[in-house]
Design a protein that fits this description.
The protein is an alpha+beta fold. It is about 20% helix and about 35% strand. The two termini are about 25 Å apart.
């Protein structure tokens, strides 16, 4: 039998020096900003060939998993239509199609008018991602942003809806966000810095004019801030949002006066985060001015700095979001790790709280484009319950189901059970864990266990249903979400305890949750797996260095693993805006702290778990060379014979494949990797 040998990366020693620390980096040569170096491409293709050869024995299982997951999806699907400015809008999937078709109707029983067929637009493209669809206020034009290079650099084009023709207007290198001026002749958009790809310049484009003649409205000079656009609920203002990790500033410009100058509503102040919207001559503001978990305030349109408190901040309730209606304010909150929805009257007085029965669930405010509507749409899902779209009657409180996710095949929600646990971390913190498994598992102590985590940026990982996950559960897996510090599941303090000097808590929490589950008889200690992507890839990479004995296998997707090198490089999109998240290694204390957990820097001579690393060559967020270097260094240092596989998709970026079926192929490979190692296939 021919032995499959991994590729060997040639070594071109490179030395990094900072704060008296000399770091040898023999695999630095894998960095190629142009992505054209034939030696680099050849090496990555060799990694792909090796991974494919190793995983060839799992190919039948991958195909079985793909067929299962695709077979649970409805071949054709139609969204619930919504009403906006005289039309019903909807999208649909055709059988076998990767992308949706967007339509509008003058009446629900009328013949639909085609807005955009994303499948036709994607035809012949190695990668296609639709960014925004924006119909002009006069309903005659459609502005579309599309990414064809997987770098999140969107091209904008405009379609005449009356004749169906595409206009000559083309806007390049945009963030993808679009807002029309009230006259339907001018379009606001944001361009990216040519080197860092940071969104930093706001422009106004006049239809029929070349992009070179567009008017620059605002340019952000501080590269720790990201610029984004929104349209106020009243549609009277363009909102120019400037955000860093911990600080916000919002400017506004009347959409009826695009030739004017924007006005700052509230100047930035370090540590002050606020988000606002406008309706009925008032600003409604969500702010952490008076408390870390945010309060809700109202200000007159003419006096945006004079606030009236609607909801004061609470220590145990995180205010996450709000939606404005003529007759109500809906707020999305998080209590004890779970989301809830509450209805207030326009003065902020409580009207009702929506109640849910599942042990681990998530609910969220849906898409509600018309503030005059008497209904609020919201979503609901649980680990054992497919997602549903509901409507809340704002007058009566009646709730009705508009659409339930359909799972084809032999799915029975009652065959699965979910739990919500609190497990102790080593410092006494109680870490929430959401888990799901089949009820008929004979012995939970013998079940393979998959632990998933993220733990960064204050992003909460919610316990929602995933039809594809059934392929693991039906083969006896226990699936657990470790809500480690660094997210906001338990409020703002949960995030603060998982960043900067407290970042080690994220890794400790993940390890302690894994051990805590095993101590409770949940999972086979010899068949434990870890999964994380992006900043979650950093999480599992650091955990793998610290406790490699705890896991049989690890899956790291687009992993942020060369943290120190990247945070020292201001030319990368990930760097300058995230000093408040990881630290600034130009500062010596931050440097040594980041190095102490950076997965790439902490690789050592020891036995590691089986590892599958997946990434995208055109990733603009976590550059492809981070996982490539990490795998090369692990291969040079690890003392075991376990699998070490790098699958580098040469056509995609940070989000992977964009098609609804193409994504399943990647997932089937990850599941087959774990199932094979766990000795489970049937």
């Amino acid at each position: 039998m021919t032995r499959i040998l991994p590729p060997q990366a040639p070594r071109h020693p490179h030395v990094h020096e900072r704060h008296g620390d000399l770091r040898q980096d023999p695999w630095f040569w894998l960095r190629d900003d142009s992505r054209q170096d034939p030696e680099v491409r050849a090496y990555l293709e060799a990694e792909n060939a090796y991974s494919q050869a190793v995983l060839a024995q799992t190919q039948p299982l991958q195909q079985t998993l793909y067929d299962e997951m695709a077979g649970r999806m409805q071949p054709t699907e139609l969204s619930v239509p919504y009403w906006l400015r005289g039309f019903w809008y909807r999208h649909r999937f055709e059988a076998g199609a990767e992308h949706p078709v967007y339509e509008r109707l003058s009446a629900l029983e009328a013949q639909p008018e085609l807005l955009l067929d994303a499948n036709a637009r994607a035809a012949g493209q190695a990668f296609y991602q639709l960014g925004s669809l924006a119909v002009s206020p006069d309903n005659r034009l459609l502005a579309v942003s599309e990414d064809l290079g997987a770098r999140r650099q969107y091209r904008v084009q405009v379609r005449d809806l009356a004749g169906g023709d595409w206009r000559e207007d083309v806007l390049e290198n945009t963030s993808g966000e679009l807002v029309w001026a009230a006259d339907s002749r001018q379009l606001f958009y944001v361009t990216l810095d040519e080197e860092t790809l940071l969104p930093c310049r706001l422009w106004c484009h006049t239809l029929g004019e070349p992009q070179a003649q567009d008017r620059l409205i605002y340019e952000e000079a501080d590269d720790s801030f990201y610029l984004s656009l929104d349209l106020s609920r009243s549609e009277r203002f363009l909102l120019i949002c400037l955000e860093s990790t911990l600080t916000t500033e919002v400017w506004c410009l009347p959409t009826a006066a695009p030739e004017g100058q924007p006005v700052c509503l509230l100047p930035r102040q370090e540590g002050h985060e606020y988000y606002l919207d406008h309706l009925a001559d008032h600003w409604i503001i969500r702010s952490n001015r008076d408390g870390a978990n945010f309060g809700l305030y109202r200000a007159a349109e003419a006096s945006p700095s004079q606030w009236q408190t609607l909801l004061g901040p609470e220590d145990t309730v995180l205010l996450q979001d709000f939606e404005l209606f003529d007759s109500a304010i809906l707020v999305e909150e998080r209590v004890a790790g779970l989301t809830r929805l509450r209805q207030l009257d326009p003065q902020g007085l409580p009207v009702r709280t929506l109640q849910f029965a599942d042990a681990a669930y998530v609910t969220w405010l849906g898409f509600n484009p018309c503030p005059g509507s008497g209904e609020c749409r919201y979503g609901y899902s649980a680990l054992t319950r497919p997602a549903g779209l509901y409507a809340l009657d704002l007058a009566s409180g009646e709730q009705r189901l508009l659409k339930q996710q359909v799972v084809l095949g032999h799915f029975d929600a009652e065959a699965y059970t979910s739990q919500r646990l609190l497990l102790p971390a080593r410092d006494g913190a109680q870490v929430p864990v959401s888990l799901v498994y089949r009820r008929d598992l004979a012995d939970l102590r013998q079940a393979p266990l998959l632990v998933y985590g993220y733990g960064a940026y204050g992003l909460s990982e919610d316990p929602e249903f995933d039809a594809a996950r059934l392929s693991l559960l039906d083969r006896g897996f226990i699936y657990a979400i470790a809500h480690v510090r660094g997210g906001e599941e338990l409020g703002r303090h949960w995030y603060e305890q998982g960043r900067l000097e407290a970042k080690a808590n994220s890794f400790n929490d993940f390890i302690d949750v894994t051990e805590g589950l095993l101590d409770r008889g949940l999972g086979d200690p010899k068949r434990v797996f870890a999964l994380g992507g992006s900043a979650g890839g950093l999480l599992v990479g650091a955990v793998m260095n610290q406790r490699p004995d705890l896991y049989l296998g690890v899956v790291a997707a687009v992993p942020f693993v060369d943290v120190l090198t990247s945070m020292l490089d201001e030319s990368l999109p990930l760097t300058t805006g995230e000093y408040d998240e990881w630290g600034d290694p130009r500062d010596e204390d931050d440097y040594w702290r980041i190095k102490s957990y950076s997965p790439y820097d902490q690789v050592k001579a020891q036995a590691y778990p089986h590892l599958l690393v997946v990434s995208g060559f055109h990733d603009s967020q976590v550059q492809y060379w981070e996982p490539a270097k990490w795998v090369a260094k692990l291969r040079a240092h690890k003392t075991d014979s376990n699998w070490l596989l790098l699958c580098m998709d040469m056509e995609v970026g940070h989000g992977g494949q964009s098609g609804r079926y193409a994504q399943l192929k990647d997932l089937a490979r990850e599941y087959a990797f774990m199932l094979h190692l766990a000795g489970v296939s049937g």
